[in-house]
Amino acid sequence: MSHCLKLLFAALLACLALPAAAQSGRDVAQGSEAYVYEVDSLQNGAGAPGAPLDLETPMGLLESFMAAGRADDWARAAAGIDFTDVETQVDGVSRERVAAELYDLLNRSVSFSTSALPDRPDAVDTQTSSKDPMAGVARRSITLGRLELPGRSVPIRIARVRAPGGEPLWVFSRQTAANVPALYDRFGPTKFEKSLPPALRQQAFWTLAWWEVIALPLILIAAALAAALTYLAVRRVRKKFAEDGLWETVLQALHLPVTLLAFAGTFAIVRATFFRLSGPVKDLLDPLQLLLVIAAVVGILLSILGRIFDFATEKRTRELEAPGNNEDRAFYTKLSAIRRIVTAVLMLAAVGFLLVASDLNSTLGFSIIASAGVIGLVLVFAARQVLGDMMASVQIAFAQTAKIGDAVYFNDQWCYVEKIGFTHLRLRTWDEKRVIAPVADFVGSCFENWTKRDPSLMMHVELELDNRADVEALRGPFRSFVENDEDVIDPDDASVQVVGQSAKAMVVRFMARAEDPKCGWTMHCRLREHMLKEAARLDAASDREPAPAFLAREREVRMDMTAEEDAA
User: Fold this and answer.
1) What is the pLDDT of residue 436?
2) Which of 154, 314, 334, 528 could form a disulfide with 461 if both were Cys (CB 3.0 to 4.6 A apart)?
3) Phi-psi region of 206 (alpha: psi -120 to 50; beta: other; left: phi over 0)
4) Which residues contact 309 (CB under 8 A, 6 or more apart)?
5) Where are the transmembrane segments (predicted)?
6) How far is CA 111 from the centre of its chain?
7) Is position 535 within any domain?
8) Which residue in 475, 473, 481, 466 sits closest to 525, CA to CA?
9) pLDDT by residue (tens digit) across 381-391?
10) 310/304 Cα distance (integer angstroms)
């Protein structure tokens, strides 16, 4: 059954290829004939002197072509290229020159493995998995790679063709040959490279020439030098604007991203101007270079956005904490959430641009891993906590359970919300300490928001007094305090309550309302001090029994030893 499906799939491919073959003047061989492109004529320099190229299989073509190129035998290498369209569309270009330029492009800009090519005339891949839809299917065209010209993508392709009365041969296609001059102008050596001595242009190892081995460290040194000079220049400018808070803040944020951009930009400019490294090295450096540039640009944008926002909120911290400034607190909190959303969008856009611009999704390894879902699983697993924290911080901002400038009671500490970040909140305690609380912990636990709707706060002082204390005697001093203290906003709302009792003492609560938590704290301390002073005064006046005591005492039981002995 599977064999029938493969035959059906091959027939479908052949049917789809018929229109294109007819338009190009080619006929597809049918029946028992070899699977080839039938051409009117094949102009491939087959009469060149020397040992002929092995054009019977794709592997043989590439191995013999690259061997002829390494020997600078361009006349023999030209036998592996179909020059039909070159001579009719590009005048004045010799076959030897096209062969040399094609060899340079293959060696410099296209990554392929000769050993991975089929070593059969029909190009059937016997090494691939049976799940591959092309497994066991004959081919007459193989794409080795693609190079990008302005506005179009150009494939480097080999094809199996046959001229009337000739044998089927594997050659570089006529379309590929016609595109070689334009590709060479874009991806070939620069004028600087051409001026180097021939010895430096000889291959050293892998696909690197000697000049590339020397040039790569020089490029890195030039980029590092540019980055160092940029770092020093920004530091000098920062010193000039040290007294200007906004500019100093912005320059501080830009310091490292601009340095990184100088490194990546210099690296890219020097490579594009003087050095065009070969294929495998280029394939490795291009995504890395692009990643550094994108990281630097995104870092600059995010740094400017973050620093300006931080500067605005830090300068207005005291104003935002004002009791009646609820509207501004809500505005800056929403602005903080929008900033985080913009940051997330920029990061996603940068990742998407990196994947598209570097064409990572076209690589074999990436495709295999992505098809298995491994990359997605790894990214989701690694980022689950971060993504959760980001969503929690946005939830806080839009639900406004806590706003920038709000007074909250969290983990037994009275704090002001100073900043809502991606993963952490920065809280300032009453004694000017900073508490860094994870967003997940803050959202997942209970906390008191003392300024959610009404900044006024009922403050209370609890004192442990002797069970014999006359609470009524303390109401007068308490009433005098609440009527005369400037931070008590509603004396009629103040009260004295006995809220607990034990064998040792009773607990008396004194309550009064303050305008906001900050005033309430100082009023709370004054109230405690005042009531302790009054309790001590009343306690000192009760030195004769049976007058009541006010301050709690440890009770002692004295036993008369004589009475005990008599009883014994």
Assistant:
1) 86
2) 528
3) left
4) 335, 336, 339
5) 208-234, 246-270, 290-309, 337-357, 363-383
6) 28
7) yes
8) 481
9) 656 666 666 67
10) 10
In a domain, 568, yes or no: no
- DSSP assigned state of 507: E
Which of 191-205, 276-290, 311-325, 401-415 reaches the highest mean pLDDT? 401-415
C-alpha to C-alpha distance for 297 and 300, rounded to whole angstroms: 5
**Whether the Cβ atoms of residue 517 and residue 407 lie closer than 8 Å to each other:** yes
pTM above 0.70, yes or no: no
Token reading at 245 = 């808070």
Specify the DSSP class assigned to residue 272.
H
How, if at all, do strands 152-162 and 37-38 pair? parallel
The SS3 of residue 15 is helix
CB 102 within 8 A of CB 78: no
Determine the distance from the C-alpha atom of residue 267 to the mean position of all C-alpha atoms in its chain, rounded to a whole number: 22
Amino acid 102 reads L
**CB within 8 A of 483, min separation 6: which ones?**
491
CA 171, 172, 177, 181 torsion: positive or negative? negative
Average pLDDT over residues 285-291: 79
Residues 6+ apart with CB under 8 A from 360: 287, 354, 366
54 and 140 fall within a common domain: yes
Residue 300 per-residue DSSP state: H
3-state secondary structure of 464: strand
Distance CA 516, CA 540 (A): 36
Give the largest Cα separation in the chain, rounded. Answer: 144
Residue 525's identity, in one-letter code, is: C
Q: Could you tell me if 390 and 340 are in contact, meaning their C-beta atoms sit under 8 angstroms apart? A: yes
Task: Note whether 30 and 73 are same-domain residues.
Answer: yes
Quote the number of domains for the chain. 4
User: 3-class DSSP state for residue 74?
Assistant: helix
For residue 410, the cross-strand partners are 413
Domain assignment present for 83: yes
Judge if 19 and 131 occupy the same domain. Answer: yes
- Are 73 and 119 a contacting pair, CB within 8 Å? no
Look up residue 81 and give its DSSP letter. Answer: B
The tokens for 135 are 């497994």
Same domain, 36 and 109: yes
Q: State the distance between the two ends of the chain, measured CA to CA, in whole angstroms.
A: 112
Q: Provide the residue count of the chain.
A: 568
Residue 296 lies in domain: 195-315
Residues 159, 51 share a domain? yes
